[in-house]
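Retro notes (design track)

What went well: tokenization of the new backbones is finally stable.
What didn't: we kept losing track of which sequence belonged to which structure.
Fix going forward: every design gets posted as structure first, then sequence, in one message. First example under the new rule, 345 residues:
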């Protein structure tokens, strides 16, 4: 089969078989068998191609073109018949089913951010809006970065094993994100410094309001002529952003080895409006974090001139803020993964 007559005879038989398949007559061959017969590797169309070598050289290009046209025609017709057969099978299956494909489907419930993630993202966006830059440091760190560089003496109780997780000798799970301050100040020697360091911290603590692993946010500002009033203004803006315009804030003198002067940050109780309730223990105030001016000893540890530069730092727990903002009574609710609880947020 290697002449034009053979090609036309094959095309005629192909079209006749396809028409018979379309008619659906009982004697019509199966579509798969037809496709194998004409388009299979041992099929008749490929047989024409293999027999082209017997033709004179000057006839091969024209004959090859016609064979390719026949093959394209066959592939197109078979593809159309297969699509039609698939559609008919689907329609037949639907006709036997009680399913109504025109009815709207059942939507899968949409997920949303965890309350901790909501507070974290809101905190990051707020301080970025004030010009703060995100900074990170490792969670497993040498105790020099976690304690000594922050002016925490060797005999400080926070360095004991009942407060700190020790991975190896001299290596700890960081107890605060303040180690980010040290790494950043060592790597950057030019002010101004304005960084925000969110991350996980670890302490040997576990009760209704404390967890051995929780998220904290640390902020640090360093430049010339930075005062405590800059710290207060920044924190007042943050408190009103998180808890509403009616919230008040106060600063109680406190002690942290890495800040001097140091203070505890309190907000007026958001549950009773400062009148006194069970949550605020009738005081009208709720502690939210610690702050202070950077201690000159910290600047000396990292090679900054404490006579020239000043700064402030503050930190608070994201878990703590989420509990206050959403009225969550137990910190364990935030990590249990109970969807009934999480759907409320």
């Amino acid at each position: 089969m290697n002449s034009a007559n053979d090609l036309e005879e094959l095309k005629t038989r192909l079209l006749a078989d396809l028409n018979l398949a379309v008619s659906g007559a009982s004697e019509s061959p199966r579509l798969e068998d037809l496709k194998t017969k004409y388009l299979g590797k041992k099929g008749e169309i490929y047989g024409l191609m293999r027999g082209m070598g017997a033709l004179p050289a000057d006839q091969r290009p024209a004959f090859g073109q016609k064979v390719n046209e026949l093959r394209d025609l066959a592939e197109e017709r078979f593809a159309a018949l297969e699509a039609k057969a698939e559609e008919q099978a689907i329609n037949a299956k639907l006709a036997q089913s009680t399913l109504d494909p025109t009815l709207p489907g059942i939507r899968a419930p949409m997920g949303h951010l965890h309350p901790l993630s909501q507070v974290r993202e809101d905190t990051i966006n707020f301080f970025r809006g004030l010009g703060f830059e995100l900074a990170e440091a490792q969670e497993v760190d040498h105790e020099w970065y976690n304690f000594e560089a922050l002016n925490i003496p060797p005999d400080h109780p926070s360095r004991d094993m009942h407060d700190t997780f020790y991975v190896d000798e001299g290596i700890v799970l960081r107890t605060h994100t303040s180690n980010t301050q040290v790494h950043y100040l060592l790597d950057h020697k030019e002010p101004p410094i304005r960084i925000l360091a969110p991350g996980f911290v670890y302490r040997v603590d576990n009760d209704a309001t404390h967890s051995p692993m929780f998220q904290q946010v640390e902020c640090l500002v360093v430049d010339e002529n930075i005062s405590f009033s800059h710290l207060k203004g920044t924190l007042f803006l943050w408190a009103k952003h998180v808890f509403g315009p009616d919230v008040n804030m106060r600063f109680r003198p406190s002690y942290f080895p890495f800040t001097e002067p140091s203070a505890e940050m309190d907000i007026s109780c958001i549950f009773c409006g400062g009148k006194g309730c069970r949550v605020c223990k009738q005081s009208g105030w709720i502690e939210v974090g610690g702050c202070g001016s950077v201690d000159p000893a910290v600047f000396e540890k990292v090679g900054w001139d404490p006579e020239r530069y000043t700064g402030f730092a503050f930190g608070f727990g994201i878990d703590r803020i989420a509990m206050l903002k959403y009225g969550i009574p137990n910190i364990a609710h935030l990590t249990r993964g109970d969807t009934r609880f999480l759907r409320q947020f």
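Added context from the reviewer: The CA atoms of residues 243 and 325 lie 7 Å apart.
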